[in-house]
Amino acid sequence: MQRLRSSGLTTVELLAALGVLMVLVSIAIPVMRWDDKRRREDELRIYLHVMREAIDLYKTAADEGKIEQKDVDQRHYPLDLDELVEGVDVADPLSGKTHKIHYLQKIPVDPFTGEAEWGKRSYQDDWDSTSWGGENVYDVYSLSEGKALDGTNYKDW
Predict the structure, then answer these.
(1) Residues 6 or more apart from 145 whose CB is under 8 A from it?
(2) Cβ-count burial 108-131 (b if 16+ within 10 Å, e if not)
(3) Rounded to an integer, what distance in angstroms lies between the CA atom of residue 144 and that of residue 132?
(4) What is the bridge-based pairing of β-strands 119-121 and 139-141?
(5) Beta-bridge mates of residue 8
(6) How much is the pTM?
(7) Residue boundaries of the structural domains of the chain
(8) Shortest CA distance to 104 belongs to which of 127, 130, 78?
(9) Of 136, 134, 131, whose CA–CA distance to 155 is shortest?
(10) What value does the CA radius of gyration of the chain take, rounded to a whole number of Å?
(11) Cβ(108)–Cβ(47) under 8 Å?
(12) What is the DSSP string of 13-70?
């Protein structure tokens, strides 16, 4: 008498495979979340660097007398971030002609708040101030209350 062999998985084999799959998924999800947070942190670093570089370039041009200051309290810094996007007339010292320079294409969106709103500090504000005096924009920071992977606060970057 011949016995017929059935091909397929037994219930025990199926449960074991499902258990292994669940362990792998439970490991992969936290790694994916960590990787997403690290990517957003990299974006935040880049955006802060770009905006600070734009502020510095504006300041350099103003120090050289290429940008006409609207107010003495400006201290050669932009009045707000919108001024960096809208552009300013910069004088060419050799030809005397002016041309518009846009220091930022747009105000970036903070990857942690999802808004294009940033904390700002005036030159006249204290270095750790959280309320903007409004005279100029000396520095920018994230408005996120979150903590970075290294334990620092995003608003302190």
Answers:
(1) 153, 154, 155
(2) bebbbbeeeebbbbbbebeeeeee
(3) 16
(4) antiparallel
(5) none
(6) 0.79
(7) 11-156
(8) 78
(9) 131
(10) 27
(11) yes
(12) HHHHHHHHHHHHHHHHHHHHHHHHHHHHHHHHHHHHHHHHHHHHHHHHHHHTT-S--S
> What Å distances lie between residue 130 and 108, 115, 126, CA to CA?
20, 18, 9
Tokens representing 27 are 């490991």
Q: What is the pLDDT of residues 103-138, one digit of tens each?
A: 999 999 999 999 999 999 999 998 888 889 889 999
Interval 2-58: pLDDT, tens: 666 666 778 888 888 888 888 888 887 877 888 899 999 999 999 999 999 999 999
Query: CB pairs under 8 A, 24+ apart, for 13-16?
Result: none
CA distance 156 to 123: 17
Please count the CA atoms within 13 angstroms of the CA of 73 that sit on its side-chain side: 10
